[in-house]
Amino acid sequence: KYWVVNYELKTWEKPNDFGTRPVITRGTMFLDINFKNTMWEIADIEELHYYLEEGGDPARVFHFKVLKIIRG
């Protein structure tokens, strides 16, 4: 039921001090997503394919809504 996302968060506790190491936190989030199996209206389907293949943000293309986030 949930979309599983593993993440790594890097936080520098002293801004602009490049001599300090970041604090690294790793975890897992479980996302409850409402997803429609359709895309936004795009005039040129080839442009859409190129956009996604080049690493474009899928959130700009597909219809979905995050309903709940649970940190594991």
SSE run: EEHE
- Order the strands across the largest sheet as they lie in space: 1-2-3
Q: Determine the N-to-C terminus distance.
A: 15 Å
Shape: flat
How many helices? The count is: 1
| Share of helical residues | 10-25%
Outline the low-pLDDT stretches: none
Average residue pLDDT: 86
Secondary-structure-based class equals mainly beta
Explain what the structure shows:
Helices cover 12% and strands 50% of the residues. The protein has 72 residues and is mainly beta. The chain has a 3-stranded antiparallel sheet, with no helix packed on it. The protein starts with a strand and ends with a strand.
Could you name the key traits of this structure?
mainly beta; flat; 72 residues; single chain; 1 helix; 3 strands
